[in-house]
Amino acid sequence: MTILRRTTRGRTSRGLLVGLVAAATAAALPGAASADAAPGAPAAEARSTAVVDAASVTLVTGQKVTVVGHGSGPASYLLQPAGPGDDGVVSWQLGAGADHYVVPIDALPFLGKGLDASLFDVTALARDARSAGGAAQTRTQNPVAARLDARPGARIPVTLAFTAGTTPTAPPGVTLTSVTGSSAQGYLDPGSGASFARALRQRIGADVAAGRKPGSTPLFGGLTSLAVAGAATAATVTPHYPLHILQLTATDALGAPADGDAIVLNNDAIAREAADVPIVGGVGRVAVPAGDYTVATIFPAWDAEGSLTDLREVTQLDVTVPDTGAAAVDLDARTATASVSLHTPRPSTREVTALDVERFDATARSAFGLGVETWSDAAFAVSPAAAPSVGRVQFRARFDTVATDPADAYRYDLAFSADHIDADQAYSADPRLLATVHHRFSADPAADPGASLLAGPFDSGYLSGTEEVSGYTFLTLPQRLTEYVQTYPGSTWSESVSDSTGMVHGEPRAFAGGATYDIDWLHGPLAPTLGVHHTDEYDYTCLMCTAGPVALLGYETLGDSTPDHLGFSFLPPALTVYVNGQLAAENDYPSAVLTGVPTGAATYRVVLTTDSGGDPGVSQSTHTVTDLTVHSPAVPDPGSTLPPSQACGGAPDGTPCQILPALNLSYDLATDPTNTSSSPVQAMAVTVGHLSYDGRGSTAPITSLAVRVSFDGGTTWHRAAVSGAHGHYAALWDNPASAAGTSPMLQVTAKDALGGSVTQTVTDAYTVAAAPEHGH
Length: 776
Fold this sequence. Notes:
Elements: E1 2-4, E2 43-44, E3 54-58, E4 64-70, E5 73-80, E6 89-94, E7 100-104, H1 122-132, H2 143-149, E8 156-162, E9 174-180, E10 183-188, H3 193-209, E11 223-228, E12 243-251, E13 260-266, E14 274-279, E15 283-289, E16 291-302, E17 308-321, E18 327-332, E19 338-339, E20 341-343, E21 348-360, E22 367-374, E23 379-382, E24 392-403, E25 410-418, E26 426-428, E27 435-441, E28 450-458, E29 466-469, E30 475-476, E31 479-486, E32 492-499, E33 502-506, E34 516-521, E35 527-529, E36 544-547, E37 550-554, E38 556-559, E39 565-569, E40 573-579, E41 582-587, E42 591-595, E43 602-611, E44 623-632, E45 658-659, E46 663-669, E47 676-677, E48 681-690, E49 692-693, E50 696-697, E51 702-710, E52 718-719, E53 721-725, E54 728-734, E55 745-752, E56 757-763, E57 767-768
Parallel strand pairs: 1-2, 5-29, 12-18, 17-23, 20-26, 25-31, 27-34, 47-57
Antiparallel strand pairs: 1-42, 3-4, 4-5, 6-7, 6-22, 8-10, 8-11, 9-10, 12-15, 13-14, 13-16, 16-17, 19-23, 21-22, 21-24, 24-25, 27-31, 28-30, 28-32, 32-33, 33-39, 35-38, 36-37, 36-45, 37-42, 40-41, 40-43, 43-44, 44-56, 46-48, 48-54, 49-50, 51-52, 51-55, 53-54, 55-56
């Protein structure tokens, strides 16, 4: 039997949001997955790819992007601003399965003129972050140092080139590690994004003040190129069709020739042509096959302070390139006459305005995505366009606004969609369609209180992926927030919460207009989970499945009291797997793919540990041990066949995937928003079930549940009183006066009729409130 770390054609999968972040779920160094096993036991293959499904990267200007895979489906992109003053980003993907780029608006004048596109290829950056993570963490390292290095946006190695004869000097936010002539090596520090962005805005402002086009003057100290080290160079293209010249003429809002980039793609079949065409001096040229095309660009404008003042998006959906002669298209910012605005029933301030163009070609198998997300209050306008004659378009407007008075603690999250770009871009929230969502955010009292709520529509028809965006008004945990949600038919609503300890993601929900919902986030005890997977919209990768001789065994490292919440913790994980009592895998990340396992009955034991290593920013759930035993049946259970909409990574082609009857625990502890209890009698609801996807999975009866609590670090244990049946239980125990100000351990054990079991032990599961001080 060999151990593999699943890879899926260079893309990640959503179902194992396990370990998620860059280095946090480290890939093992060659040989690191090996284990001293008994003769005949499975042996680890020395490979360094990790089974992870998302990673967070910090762009050169400080924005954070988390790339979340969905099996074989399009990924999601979770965008967080660098902070107040961030103008926003432009994102694009040139066809289904292509790399996704997220370029800060303030970097656009320098794209290809000092800043290489590799700095903004978040698909590649996330992939590099995952593969590089193993070098940052081993079992013998200081776990606190490993955790800190694993936070989103680890250092990005870069290469720099300068004008001939120039001695290289480090640009803001870059540390040089070596210099050779007029070139250098170094790295980007994610903590320096603000200084780099400030320097870009200063250059833009200086150009505007002098009457020059933004980006006209060279970047810092003669810098001619800043690129990710080892980034792939453009491949030589061999044309398969006769080519014809398409000339692009760009004119800005003042009637002057504009510089920039335009996207050109073939509407008959994107595979024939999809290109980013540079425009210099108002003119760009590209050789393309004959056919129907979409051409799109944006025109940003800044003031002498380097602040964004105006943003215009021009899209032409039906440009004909004949099979004889050349063709030309005018891109004129002055045709962007439809100003974007939003009215909300209650007073609110716009924080996020996002416009997406999803252009499907005639084959309907591929689509180009262009998105503009701005956190600025700059004027925003688009050029109207009728529904195209070839293929189709989906134009989407998204808004995030916050209460004008922050004390009111509400926000609006709205999305609208159309099959054309309307001349009227004035949107209004419809009270009949608004859902009211009451969010309650809990927090570890030792953690950094800053957090973000990221939100956006989830649309499985978006082939270029969907985005969740955070505003720049960050949460201060613990907190309550009322959110008014309105989205368009055919979409659901997707949300995540990111804080200093990790990220939790909820399944997309269909919020109904006029209805009210309550959602708890980060309410403890926080612990690894298999989650609850109701929807068939997400393309998950099965966490616990077998497919012939292959077994997938893994956990999400962070779950809270809401059963469908799952995500990743920055606490370093360690996974040990046994097959029929023999050691099979020992990984520094929370999943493994085994090959050569028995195709019939077998017993799997999966032990996952997470540990804070004494990190002062973590005082609850500081150490967890999840010990699962699950039996694969001799004869497959038809009710446990993985739905075809879900992924079974690593399975042989055509081999049915069977969901293992793995037990899962979910808790709801009666504590306050700091996960602290002041009650002498402690109550906790426990839900026990089996891993399932879209209703498929084991329905074996739950036979027992036991809950124990320790107030002395595990030396002695006290059994809680448990009542309930059929997977739904309530546990009660005493919080003695002697425990005031301490954090007890919890241990929960569940068993089923198949002989399966799970025991989860959580150190510092919650806090018992300190005894009140008596005044004089």
